[in-house]
């Protein structure tokens, strides 16, 4: 990687010097001009590419549509190109002042889209495909390849669940349709499946296509049920010559808001009131005596010495920067692209960071008329310190809210504080202060990836190509954890270290024929091919505790006195597939697409190794009919419909087999090896199947000034992989089987247009929103409820119940607070006035999947200035605020919300929903999951506001540049949410990839508000 870095830097410096010297030494004719829209001759066109034919010189028109370019002679030819317009070639012929008028391209609708194993004309596509350019993905700086996708494609929910630099987004395409299998879409990067694109450099992405319906995803068969995201990365230059570019930014991230927690005086009032109410909740006990005498924490008058704002102490202003270098070149028969990226992203929580270095080389050539070839190689290395985000425990994201403010970060002697360091009888929960944890705990994550592919394309006949390609994805991860010996209630007094190595290698080989031909009114696009794929994985894990000091940390794990049992594992799966797709168009009006794939997977039972996944799509371009083609306002009107079956093979390996586990146990004081059967075989196990119907239309009006797309879909997933109960006489409780079904019904709408287009000002706007209704249709023979977790107080927090949505919250109803006039009634259920009044039975109290989601994106341009505003919204979703357990319902153990002091039940205030203050360690608690914890999760967010300035053509010529842009932006600019939600951000989870964890969280890593200054240029 270091050698590659040196090579790319040397090449960049050489090419930069060569380009500069060429610009300085060349001489010729300076040609100036203006480019106009032929349909409205008073409107000039900014951003038009102006290229010297046969040469490397290139420029673009500025905000006024003007340009100037130096050409070698009066016979030179300039090529003008602009998206949606016909290319024009104009001879200079001694004319140094040109007015160029560009006409709309009637073939603009023939834009090609990647649809898997080839491309199709956009007008011929019968499926539902969303397209996002790399430029649109980077309207605001992004460290994650999926950040920029959020809100850009209707029907695609991207949950940015954390503000951590190492946090991973969760993507759902057209709802959640599985229970035990993965819900992640299939990611295909440059034709190669990539299991995780979280750390893919977003600056390398040229465009993304999102395949949503069965007509477009069936070509991926058993891996297409959750949708497919096709990623095309940047390659070589499109015009001859060499272009060198740089993109970079620096940013500052801050905590947008603080939660309203108790300060020291308020916290002590809560402790005192809890002591005063002791006898009410424990009438037979001896009431504790409240005091403020500990000299380390209180002065002689009992006044607290410290009032620590733990949110302030645990967070910081995070400084991040990112730098991307690119060298693009093209000659007559080949092109290349070399890219390198370095970035450091700091999190707003202390000691949270991610470093990434990324290098990529792409090469394409056509050495013979009958042969094309190329390769793509990517090296990606990341290293970061990760803050624990799952579960509860003593993670700093929790303790920075619950650590009592009466303690300092450090005492005057330099020692770290913790909540056990008090002599007054408060009986606080033992908590290591969050600054101590963040400063001394290691959770290092090192990831190295080598990814690439190579291809050969044989041009057998006109329109007939044979392509064979080989791709691979090699990953090596090293996770190193160390918890010091002085972290109370985490690792004290022994300390804890662990090292985990993860190695995986995935390869695929695919060979297929592509046929593209027109016969008069007929056009055929066909693909026929076969594929082999395999993935192997090896893991090793060692841990230990019992360190005498913290010197070696995980680097001397052998020095620990209590080593844990080491573990290792090996995993392998393979697939063999055959696929085809045929698209037929008649007179550009009537469209038919047939797709099929046969997949064989090692993950399923011996009786169901292969499955067939067919689909078909129909389209009618009504605007081509005689009764509409004379309507000038309509550019395109296309109706389309599709139906097909896809599968989900993403389950752990060996689930269909009877497997044996091995471990050790102590027998007569000696550790011996043991083995036992841990799973019954099921030779009939097969993949989940998703049948999907889609109907929609695409409408373009007024020379593409207004566009509308709408889809209705119905997805039914059957043969869900669930654990079926079996007789206990077998020695097992369950066996994995295909039972149950889930449906998703929805509507997607995408409306875009250019309300204002004038000489100096342009406004482009896009509104997209989608509605999805998720429903469990069946759960085995008896449709019995299933409680999949995650577990917390009251047991499982979610329920699977026929007729309800997946990710339904499960808990009690809070009917109020028992009043003084209800003392007798409360006593019947073991309660007293002031405690929560709840329903006797649990039920569905909310859901974590939204009904509505979407975005409203506006782009404005005035001369050389541009402004981008992205708004995103979610409606019809709930949040299960598990943190109410410890910050409101369980007073006395730790710090909590200020509302516990000011809004809690008292004999004088019996109308609220917050229980009376009691001291949990002495008086117990009444904390159960109920609907008081559930908040409205709807929100409106200004996700990004970006203001940019592009250098004028005159300025570019002065500095010998092709383009240059400066910009400033703010991300997460503001957030409008419901008053019932009391956390940092309504979009989060404490349960990682758990299917049921969305919008369920105990505490969260807050999302920052980020201010960015950036620049990009090409020469």
TrEMBL record:
Annotated GO CC locations: cell outer membrane
Keyword GTP-binding: no
Keyword tags: Cell outer membrane, Membrane, Signal, TonB box, Transmembrane, Transmembrane beta strand, Transport
First and last residue of the signal peptide: 1-23
Domain TonB-dependent receptor plug: 122-228
Membrane topology category: Multi-pass membrane protein
Main localization category: membrane
Protein name stated in the entry: TonB-linked outer membrane protein, SusC/RagA family
Biological source species: Pedobacter caeni
Taxonomic lineage of the native organism: Bacteria, Pseudomonadati, Bacteroidota, Sphingobacteriia, Sphingobacteriales
């Amino acid at each position: 990687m270091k050698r590659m870095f040196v090579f790319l830097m040397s090449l960049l410096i050489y090419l930069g010097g060569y380009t500069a010297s060429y610009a300085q030494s060349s001489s010729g004719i300076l040609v100036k001009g203006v480019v106009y829209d032929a349909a409205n001759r008073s409107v000039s066109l900014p951003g038009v590419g102006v290229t010297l034919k046969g040469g490397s010189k290139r420029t673009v028109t500025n905000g006024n549509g003007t340009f100037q370019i130096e050409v070698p002679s009066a016979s030179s030819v300039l090529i003008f190109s602009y998206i949606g317009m016909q290319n024009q070639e104009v001879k200079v012929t001694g004319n140094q002042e040109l007015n160029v008028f560009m006409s709309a391209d009637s073939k603009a609708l023939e834009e090609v889209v990647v649809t898997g194993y080839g491309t199709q004309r956009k007008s011929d596509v019968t499926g539902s495909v969303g397209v996002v350019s790399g430029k649109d993905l980077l309207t605001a700086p992004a460290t994650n390849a999926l950040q920029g996708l959020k809100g850009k494609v209707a029907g695609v929910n991207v949950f940015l669940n954390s503000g951590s630099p190492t946090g991973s987004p969760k993507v759902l395409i057209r709802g959640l349709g599985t229970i035990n299998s993965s819900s992640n879409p299939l990611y295909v990067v440059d034709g190669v499946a990539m299991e995780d694109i979280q750390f893919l450099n977003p600056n390398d992405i040229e465009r993304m296509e999102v395949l949503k319906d069965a007509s477009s995803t069936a070509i991926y068969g058993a891996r297409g049920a959750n949708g497919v995201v096709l990623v095309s990365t940047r390659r070589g230059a499109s015009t001859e010559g060499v272009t060198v570019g740089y993109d970079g930014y620096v940013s500052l991230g801050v905590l947008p808001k603080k939660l309203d927690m108790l300060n020291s005086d308020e916290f002590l009032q809560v402790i005192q009131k809890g002591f005063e109410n002791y006898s009410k909740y424990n009438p037979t006990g001896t009431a504790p005596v409240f005091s403020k005498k500990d000299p380390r924490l209180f002065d002689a008058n009992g006044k607290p010495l410290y009032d620590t704002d733990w949110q302030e102490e645990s967070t910081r202003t995070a400084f991040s920067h990112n730098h991307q270098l690119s060298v693009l070149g093209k000659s007559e028969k080949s092109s290349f692209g070399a890219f390198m990226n370095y970035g450091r992203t700091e999190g707003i929580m202390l000691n949270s960071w991610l470093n990434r270095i990324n290098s990529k080389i792409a090469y394409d050539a056509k050495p013979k008329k009958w042969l094309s070839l190329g390769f793509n190689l990517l090296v990606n290395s990341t290293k970061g310190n990760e803050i624990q985000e799952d579960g509860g425990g003593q993670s700093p994201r929790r303790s920075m809210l619950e650590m009592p403010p009466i303690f300092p970060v450090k005492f005057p002697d330099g020692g770290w504080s913790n909540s056990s360091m008090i002599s007054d009888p408060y009986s606080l929960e033992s908590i290591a202060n969050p600054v101590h944890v963040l400063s001394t705990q290691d959770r290092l994550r090192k990831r190295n990836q080598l990814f690439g592919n190579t291809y050969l394309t044989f041009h057998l006949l006109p329109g007939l190509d044979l392509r064979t390609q080989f791709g691979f994805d090699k990953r090596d991860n090293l996770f190193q954890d160390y918890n010091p010996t002085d972290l109370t209630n985490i690792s004290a007094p022994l300390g804890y270290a662990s090292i985990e190595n993860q190695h995986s290698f995935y390869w695929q080989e695919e060979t297929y024929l592509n046929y593209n031909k027109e016969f008069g009114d007929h056009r055929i696009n066909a693909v026929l091919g076969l594929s082999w794929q395999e993935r192997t994985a090896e893991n090793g894990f060692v841990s230990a505790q019992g360190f005498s000091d913290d010197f070696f940390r995980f680097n001397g794990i052998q020095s620990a006195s209590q080593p844990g049992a080491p573990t290792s594992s090996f995993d392998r799966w393979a697939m063999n597939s055959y696929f085809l797709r045929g698209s037929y168009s008649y007179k550009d009006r009537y469209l038919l697409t047939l797709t099929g794939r046969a997949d064989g997977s090692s993950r399923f039972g011996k009786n169901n190794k292969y499955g067939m996944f067919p689909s078909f799509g129909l389209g009618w371009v009504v605007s081509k009919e005689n009764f509409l083609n004379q309507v000038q306002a309509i550019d395109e009107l296309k109706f389309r419909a599709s139906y097909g079956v896809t599968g989900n093979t993403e389950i752990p390996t060996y689930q269909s087999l009877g497997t044996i586990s091995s471990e050790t146990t102590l027998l007569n004081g000696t550790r011996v090896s043991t083995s036992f059967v841990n799973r019954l075989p099921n030779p009939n196990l097969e993949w989940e199947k998703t049948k999907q119907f889609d109907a929609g239309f695409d409408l373009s009006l007024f020379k593409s000034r207004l566009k509308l797309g709408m889809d209705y879909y119905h997805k039914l997933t059957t043969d869900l992989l669930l654990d079926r109960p079996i007789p206990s006489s077998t020695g097992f409780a369950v066996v994995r089987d295909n039972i149950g079904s889930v449906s998703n019904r929805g509507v997607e709408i995408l409306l875009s247009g250019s309300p204002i287009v004038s000489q100096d000002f342009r406004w482009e706007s896009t509104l997209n929103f989608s509605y999805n209704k998720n429903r469990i249709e069946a759960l085995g023979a008896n449709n019995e409820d299933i409680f999949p977790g995650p577990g917390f107080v009251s047991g499982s927090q979610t329920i699977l119940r026929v007729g309800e949505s997946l990710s339904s919250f499960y808990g009690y109803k809070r009917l109020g607070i028992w009043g003084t006039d209800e003392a007798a009634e409360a006593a019947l259920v073991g309660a007293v006035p002031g405690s929560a009044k709840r329903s006797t039975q649990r039920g569905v109290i909310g859901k974590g999947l939204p009904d509505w989601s979407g975005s409203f994106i506006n782009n404005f341009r005035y001369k050389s200035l541009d402004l981008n505003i992205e708004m995103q919204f979610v409606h019809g979703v709930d949040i299960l605020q598990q943190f109410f357990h410890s910050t409101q319902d369980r007073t006395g153990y730790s710090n909590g919300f200020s509302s516990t002091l000011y809004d809690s039940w008292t004999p004088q205030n019996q109308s609220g929903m917050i229980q009376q203050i009691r001291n949990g360690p002495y008086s117990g608690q009444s904390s159960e999951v109920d609907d008081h914890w559930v908040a409205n999760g709807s929100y409106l967010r200004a996700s990004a506001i970006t203001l940019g300035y592009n250098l004028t053509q005159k300025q570019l010529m002065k500095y010998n540049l092709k383009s240059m842009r400066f910009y400033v932006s703010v991300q997460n600019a503001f957030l409008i949410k419901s008053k019932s939600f009391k956390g940092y951000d309504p979009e989060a989870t404490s349960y990682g990839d758990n299917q049921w964890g969305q919008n369920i969280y105990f505490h969260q890593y807050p999302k920052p508000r980020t201010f960015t200054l950036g620049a990009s240029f090409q020469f």
